[in-house]
Amino acid sequence: MTEQLAVSRPDPPYPPPGQAVRGEAVFESVLDAVGHTPLIRLARLGAGLAAPVYVKAEFLGPGMSVKDRAALHMVLAAERAGDLRPGGVIVEGTSGNTGIGLAMVAAQRGYRLIVVVPDKVGPDKISALRAYGAEVLVTAAGVPAHDPKHVRNLARSISEQIPGAWMADQYDNAANPQAHRETTGPEIWRQTAGRITHFVACIGTGGTITGTGEFLKQASGGAVRVVGADPETSVYAGGDGSPYYVEAAGHYLHPDTIEDEWPQSYHPAVLDAVEPISDRESIDTLRRLAREEGMLVGGSAGTAIAAALRVARGLGPDDLVVVLAPDSGRAYLSKYFDDGWLLTNGFQDPDGTAPALADLIAAAGPARAVPVGATVAEASAVLGAGPAAGEPAAGGAGSVETAADRVALVVLARPSLVDTWAPGDVVGTVTAAALAGRAAEEAVRDLMQPPPATAGAGESPAAVADRVPADRDWVGVLVNGRIVSVVRRAVVAARAGTEQ
Ligand code: PMP
Predict the structure, then answer these.
(1) Nearest-CA neighbor of 6 among 17, 14, 62, 19?
(2) Is the pTM of this model over 0.85?
(3) d(CA 93, CA 75)
(4) Residue 119: Cβ within 10 Å count
(5) One of 56, 67, 125, 217 is an active-site residue; which one?
(6) Is 335 a catalytic residue?
């Protein structure tokens, strides 16, 4: 099941990518060590399944992600095409692993690298790029794809202004899927001695699943089934494109998108199925992987492995599943592996022993929402439909507060068919008081207050009252990262007071 071990040639010229081998190999440069990752069986999470499930451990590459492969192949292809000449400049817009991969290749081959990153990128990632000698330019996050400030557009305009510059453009560069056609696919085929029956991977640029999937289909005469693993709200899996917590996988759709273009690196025809995976299932899976298998992987690996386990449940002993784990959990220690992060984002359920924000949901009722384009008449209809509106509040006889005072509508950047919302999609709140006396056709957009603060359903009211500033009127209660109810901050603070 393992690749044959061999010692690579000690003398340059270096073996072309795909020919050097891992294990006991001696490499003449870090670039020769790209790829050749092992398959590691899910010995415990997969126990009880008839079909073995193997993880393609891309986190063991020299840049610690699957993107080492695409970065190296894109640069080598640009050199061959004459687009990149000695001493040239590489430009790319990326928030993640492609930047690290390119930085490693650029350092080794003597190129200057300019990476444009969105301002939501954590300082550690920027430091890592700079550690390799890359120049980092920070631009606005959360802008639609047609905005000139969007990472890709800014990277393109920089590459056009610098003589001799070449933009890697992983989304539309054919060398990205080609890297996987030439390396990832053949490695898996050899490692499983052709026994693989199912390949599961996430879809970001699509390079991994397209190249690997196309190779495996071809090698097996079409027998290998290729399954995409996708965040539930990503448009690849048929979601509405609203934000999700797993990074670098799926396809988010900014609500102001004019035309949604999918990457040319992604060939959807190679897929036999797509498994939508919720953030909660991705996170639960990657945490189990660390604690039960001793494998520290990133968020998208959690998504892919959750999908692979789902696929494997329906298979028999003659089947063999390979699932690709794109990167290491090291980059996400302050997110998915941090109890505080999980709690404040609603990924930790209340255990029933201590007071929790969840206790207030019943009184507040489920959140209700209108899209930002709604009129006062439409918003009033949604508010009026609520069972709680107009009833006396819990304050009892003599209280001037009505139940309507305890209700705020959330205002959404896009229409939604489901009744929980990603905080990133919520652009404001609007109350009955704000709507009262306004003309029916007036726009909600002009009457809304700021979006609610957010807190996890498992948090204690005291902690939430402490953290949320007193000038924020509303708190959105998060269950599994999505707003399910909106509670007045004053109600949270009052509950916190009764606990002391
Ligand atoms: N997960 C992670 C962590 C990644 O960095 C990437 C690459 N953007 C992917 C998944 C998706 O891979 P691809 O772009 O090849 O589809």
Answers:
(1) 19
(2) yes
(3) 15
(4) 11
(5) 67
(6) no
Token pair recorded at residue 465: 């009252």
The best mutation among 60, 64, 67 to test binding of ligand 1, ranked by most ligand atoms within 8 Å of the C-beta, falls on: 67
Which atom of ligand 1 is least distant from the CA of 203? 16
Tell me how far the alpha carbon of residue 452 lies from the centroid of ligand 1, in angstroms.
32
4 to 19, 20, 24, 272: CA distances (angstroms): 11, 11, 10, 31
* Calpha distance 200→208 (Å, rounded): 10
The pick from 55, 59, 66, 184 for probing ligand 1's pocket by mutation, whose C-beta has the most ligand atoms within 8 angstroms, reads: 66
Nearest CA to ligand 1 atom 4: 248
pLDDT in tens, 19-46: 555 567 789 999 999 999 999 999 999 9
Nearest-angstrom CA–CA distance, 337 and 160: 41
Under DSSP, the state recorded for 65 is: B
160 Cβ contact list (under 8 Å, min separation 6): none
Edge to edge, what strands does the sheet with 453-456 contain? 453-456, 474-479, 482-488
pLDDT in tens, 171-198: 999 999 999 999 999 999 999 999 999 9
Token digits of residue 472: 């924020």
Q: Is 478 exposed, middle or buried (0-12, 13-18, 19+ CB in 10 A)?
A: buried
The yes-or-no verdict on residue 147 having pLDDT over 50 is yes
- pLDDT (tens digit per residue) in 292-329: 999 999 999 999 999 999 999 999 999 999 999 999 99
Ligand 1 pocket at CB < 6 A: 65, 67, 96-97, 202-208, 248-249, 298, 300, 326-327
